[in-house]
Amino acid sequence: MLVVATGCGRSIERPDKSAALSTPVVSAPPSPPGLPVLGIDWGRASVVERPEEAFALPAPDASISSSGIGRSGHPQHFPGQAMMADVARTPAGGLISVGYVYPGWYPTAWTSSDGTVWKLRDMGRSEFTFPVSLAVGRSGAADVVVAVGRSGSHPQAWTSADGDAWTAHPVATVGDGAIAERMTTVAASADGFLAGGSLGPELFERHARFWQSADGVAWQPVPDDPEAFADAEVRSIVAFDAGYVAVGVTGSAQDITGSVAWLSADGRTWTRIDAPDLARGRAVALVEAPWGELIAVGSGLNEEEALAWTSPDGRSWSLAPSEPSRQYPGKIRMTDVVVAGDEVVGVGNYVGVQFGTATSWVTRDGRTWTQARNAPVQQQGEIYAVAAAPPGVVGVGSMGAPDNYIPTVLISPAR
After folding, report:
1. How confident is the model at residue 338, as a pLDDT?
2. Residue 2: how many other CB atoms lie within 10 Å
3. Residue 12 in this model has a pLDDT that exceeds 70
4. How far apart, in whole angstroms, are the C-alpha atoms of residue 126 and residue 233?
5. Where would a tag sit more exposed on the chain, N or C end, judged by fewer CB atoms within 10 A?
6. Greater confidence, 121 or 63?
7. Cα(373)–Cα(360) distance, integer angstroms
8. How far is CA 233 from the centre of its chain?
9. Within a 10 A sphere around the Cβ of 94, how many other Cβ atoms?
10. What's the chain's average pLDDT?
11. Using an 8 Å Cβ cutoff, are 256 and 232 in contact?
């Protein structure tokens, strides 16, 4: 499994190929009369611009190789593939997404005025550079869009006024730079921006990290806490109850062993919460529900079930009871969650023989979830992130994995 840090953004975990499996055991809810239903029925954006490399003709003497530059170890990978890692809505009502392009893994962004037509925006050509999480906040009197991620072995941030033009900013680390540090998530608050991530080798043990910034440009690393940050990576942060709550996973990138939460009044001093129910799965995204509770989503440790947790205060966490709507005989997971009106929508995918199928769930209590109907636009798709875009939601991700990663936007209710 290839793990690429992202954030609410989050780490994207490329699924391995599975053994042949049957059709989902969960039947779709009955068709309602009238219009498509939010979080249940999905359509595809009409235009998502792709990198120019995707349309380059191969040289006459080009041969297919399973290794080397431009192949990523898979003979079917072609240049110009891209993944949309996170999405956010601006105060003006537009939409912005960030992600990265293969080969080289260089950063890119997309903007859209209405969610249906998306245009590419340049973020630079530095290779092995991944913007993975977005937040929209204020810098003085102006709105600012902040993206965070990594470039090589160092954390990096980007700022933009509107998503069209971006400026990259190096981020200070706690360590000496000998071991990789990465930002995986960012949240906006009245005090500016708060990011989380980890320190650690690419595929091995991680140690949680936090950073603060007043404007998204200059970042100060939060002092290390050897006990509170041990054996963990931050995946999602929300401002909550005059402070912050974060969730993340424990273990290594190759062997996730559970989840953990943190609480902070100021973003600098954090209290670790090792709740027994969190230890039963991978919590990767977090939101405050309209009814005041916190909801975290993710999957079981082996991705055998999409999981959800609820908490009244960030200290005590309860795992939602198992239900057929979140089970599948292969791999199934939630990757992100968002508030849409008086509901909460979770997005993700399930994987059978080889290709993923994008899906979603809707809840009004965090404990019982209704799964989306399946439609052709969801086939071979993976939704990594979701944002509210009234009158519905917009999910971003890719189509065609593991052979191809074509940037894709899904919209619900289907238009």
Report:
1. 98
2. 13
3. no
4. 24
5. N
6. 121
7. 9
8. 14
9. 18
10. 88
11. no
Angle at 401 between CA 305 and CA 336, to 5 degrees: 45
Are 25 and 410 a contacting pair, CB within 8 Å? no
Sign of CA dihedral 199, 201, 202, 205: negative
Give the pLDDT score at 204.
87
* pTM as predicted: 0.88
Nearest to 306 by CA among 285, 279, 286, 325: 325
DSSP tag of 343: E
Name 322's bridge partners: none
CA distances from 267 to 83, 143, 313 (A): 30, 21, 16
How deeply is 62 buried, as exposed, middle or buried, from its count of CB atoms within 10 A (0-12, 13-18, 19+)? Answer: exposed
Residue with structure tokens 């793990």? 3
* CA 412/CA 390 separation, integer angstroms: 10
Buried b (16+ CB within 10 A) or exposed e, 382-408: bbbbbbebeebbbbbbbbbbbebbbbb
Distance CA 194, CA 192 (A): 7
**Amino acid letter, 258:** G
Q: What confidence tier does 355 reach under pLDDT thresholds 50, 70, 90?
A: confident
3-state secondary structure of 280: helix
How far apart, in whole angstroms, are the C-alpha atoms of residue 251 and residue 230? Answer: 9
Cβ burial, residue 142 (10 Å; 0-12/13-18/19+):
exposed
- Whether 120 and 49 have beta carbons less than 8 Å apart is answered as yes
- Strands (E) located in 114-205: 117-122, 129-139, 142-151, 154-160, 167-170, 181-189, 192-199
Block residue for tokens 């041969």: 63
CA distance 105 to 328: 32
